[in-house]
């Protein structure tokens, strides 16, 4: 299929003066939202969510074209061209993530087919994300997010809002919900089950998990879930390596990309073996599409780190963009006797009341602990790479000091 087949014709893009930093912020936030939305569309078999992905993918195409135009005008001499080259890599990587998310959404829109067991496995490997429309009589209507305080009360975040044709990708504490706002909620299933009916006036009905009936299919499904988790982690660590100009983090991204490549080879073999026993082998086509798209996300993460790996240096505009994006990546050192000293981390989640995720831990004498399944006890001297909202990052830093 051609890149634009089945989509609206590309809109004409002309140069407009724009802040490269603002464009990068929006591209990063959009790319991360697209990953969440695309897997959610597959998990719920939702054409409406899949269509949101396609609309955002079109938006990303415009953003990356405007960013390229602005960067070309900014390079006035060889030194500036050298420093801006990795920024073009960051722009291209965000666009590559967007294209991969669009390919995942097409599994639903084009009814390519996906075994029910895949949705059961994704429900365990993906934090609950739902699309919820604010009803006129909801108690949340007309209130700000800080007034509702969903995150503190339930662990649920409003990660984006679509209001008519406009997106609010970074809803802040003063963002006020309006009737017919299409919100995207992410959080633990129990919290979503409490919030969704209050927001929409409709019951929340989670999908029932389905167990694979074929051993090789079960292995393939487990592989694709692990590939998804590792690819998302690679993107997070890639932006972390840029923010901190950290070659060790960039090397971890390289290691993750190699691991995802190896997983994809095994995943394809198990999928082909499963096809021999499947009642409808054609239903496995979606798995192959999902595997290819997921591997492309890890490739994109590698492109983000290019400037760090090649020791070109990180352009300040990229650092600022990462710092100002929706979910921010922070580096925190655990101080002796602090509230974090002795705190348990289970599956990457610290035992605190703060909604943040631990992406990696560096110990002075042991090196890096990296992965979505980090199980450890934090101790003084640990350097923690975490991801969360700006508010949670500040609170987490206070616990460490």
From TrEMBL:
InterPro entries: AAE_transporter, PhoU-like_sf, PhoU_dom, RCK_C, RCK_C_sf. It comes from the Archaea. Residues 115-201, 315-401 form the RCK C-terminal domain. GO terms for biological process: potassium ion transport. GO terms for molecular function: monoatomic cation transmembrane transporter activity. PANTHER family: K(+)_H(+) ANTIPORTER SUBUNIT KHTT. This is Uncharacterized protein with PhoU and TrkA domain. It comes from Halorubrum alkaliphilum. The lineage of its organism: Archaea, Methanobacteriati, Methanobacteriota, Stenosarchaea group, Halobacteria.
């Amino acid at each position: 299929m051609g890149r634009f087949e089945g989509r609206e014709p590309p809109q004409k893009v002309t140069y407009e003066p724009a802040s490269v930093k603002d464009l990068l912020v929006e591209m990063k936030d959009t790319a991360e939202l697209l990953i969440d939305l695309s897997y959610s569309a597959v998990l719920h078999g939702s054409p409406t969510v899949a269509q949101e992905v396609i609309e955002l993918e079109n938006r990303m195409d415009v953003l990356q074209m405007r960013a390229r135009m602005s960067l070309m005008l900014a390079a006035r001499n060889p030194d500036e061209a050298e420093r801006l080259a990795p920024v073009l890599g960051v722009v291209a990587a965000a666009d590559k993530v967007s294209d991969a998310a669009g390919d995942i959404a097409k599994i639903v829109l084009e009814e390519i087919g996906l075994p029910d067991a895949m949705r059961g496995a994704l429900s365990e490997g993906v934090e609950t994300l739902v699309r919820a429309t604010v009803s006129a009589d909801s108690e949340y209507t007309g209130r700000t997010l800080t007034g509702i305080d969903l995150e503190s009360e339930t662990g649920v975040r409003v990660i984006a809002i679509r209001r008519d044709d406009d997106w609010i990708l970074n809803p802040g504490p003063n963002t006020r919900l309006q009737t017919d706002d299409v919100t995207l909620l992410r959080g633990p299933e129990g919290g979503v089950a409490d919030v969704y009916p209050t927001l929409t006036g409709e019951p929340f009905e989670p999908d029932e998990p389905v167990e694979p009936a074929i051993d090789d299919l079960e292995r393939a499904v487990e592989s694709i879930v692990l590939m998804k988790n590792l690819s998302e982690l690679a993107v997070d660590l890639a932006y972390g390596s840029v923010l901190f100009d950290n070659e060790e983090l960039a090397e971890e991204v390289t290691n993750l990309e190699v691991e995802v490549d190896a997983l994809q080879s095994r995943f394809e073999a198990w999928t082909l073996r499963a096809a021999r026993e499947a009642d409808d082998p054609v239903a496995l086509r979606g798995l192959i599409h999902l595997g290819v798209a997921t591997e492309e996300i890890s490739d994109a993460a590698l492109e983000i780190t290019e400037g760090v790996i090649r020791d070109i240096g990180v352009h300040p505009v990229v650092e600022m963009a990462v710092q100002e994006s929706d979910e921010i990546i922070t580096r925190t050192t655990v101080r002796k006797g602090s509230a974090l000293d002795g705190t348990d981390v289970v599956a990457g989640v610290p035992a605190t009341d703060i909604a943040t995720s631990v992406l990696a831990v560096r110990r002075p004498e042991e090196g890096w602990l990296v992965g979505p399944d980090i199980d450890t006890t934090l101790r003084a001297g640990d350097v923690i790479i975490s991801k969360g909202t700006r508010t949670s990052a500040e609170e987490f830093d206070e616990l460490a000091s």
